[in-house]
């Protein structure tokens, strides 16, 4: 007799949930630049002080994380003690943005690093954990900060270096999501649900240009989108949107071409958070936005709002990451990419 409680392993890389976990609350905090962009009205908090009242960018990022997670918990209506795990990460060395931001919550933490794909990684693991019954509630949280990321990966802002047109602008932002378990007895159908997750592989096309993150990440995005569509037997026109994290304009063009070469045309459905978050005619961000916070705040604000309002019914959310460090880059290594895909549907399903 078939056990209807068991989740399904689909194809090579996908898990389909029998009782999809739901996102019962989310929160987003952004900086001044993001607050001047076209998605400003969707964010919960816009902070004009780049240090968030602290004395460094790094401490400011931690404060941003703390505020965002606190707000997500508050909006959920769930007592903090009922949240069993936090899955979180950022771009800074040893995850100090996350570590110092979460240290006073007294909740068990898994620190994650997937570069700018970390939102997808944290949401996937939170969904898998609650679906398996290891927690009733878990939080996925990610962040990035323009000043801290530039200092660590590129040049100090005081240097005033010129950036090529392929470069992206690291988003100052943090997104947090409270993910809840569902069951036959407690379906919670009104919330956006994570129906499936496709875990990405590391893909390396040999790109070495750290100022062209889109080219580094596009092959990984193409690989996981292809596999998600194959594993779930979906056609692009069955999705309202296929949303990548931060490929920017350059990477988006590469992604569409790679998938066309493999039999899928996603141009009509494709959207990129890095392209959407800034107005390039008014804000000089070159290829667009990037950073862990880019896809996180766009999902928490704009994307889930579209699902709430039933303008979209089903989307594939695909945060993308470039797996480099200052050590690997300075030693001449290539920049591999990774991406993770989540099938997210509007509330109201069975």
Give a brief rundown of this model.
The chain has 350 residues and is of the alpha/beta class.
Question: How would you characterize the overall build of this protein?
Answer:
β5, α3 and β6 (109-111) form a beta-alpha-beta unit. The chain is α/β, with parallel strands linked by helices. α2 (57-76) crosses α3 (96-102). The two termini are 21 Å apart. The protein has helices spanning 32-35, 57-76, 96-102, 118-131, 146-153, 213-231, 248-261, 273-276, 292-308, 326-330, and strands at residues 8-10, 14-16, 22-31, 45-47, 85-89, 109-111, 137-144, 169-170, 173-180, 193-198, 241-244, 270-272, 289-290, 314-318, 320-322, 337-339, 341-345. Helices cover 32% and strands 22% of the residues. The radius of gyration is 19 Å and the shape is globular. It has 10 helices and 17 strands. It folds into 2 domains: 8-180, 3-Layer(aba) Sandwich (Peroxisomal Thiolase, Chain A, domain 1); 193-345, Stage V sporulation protein AD (Peroxisomal Thiolase, Chain A, domain 1), CATH 3.40.47.40. The strands form 4 sheets. Strands 1-2-10-17-14-11-12 form a 7-stranded mixed sheet, sandwiched between helices. The model has no long low-confidence stretch (mean pLDDT 89).
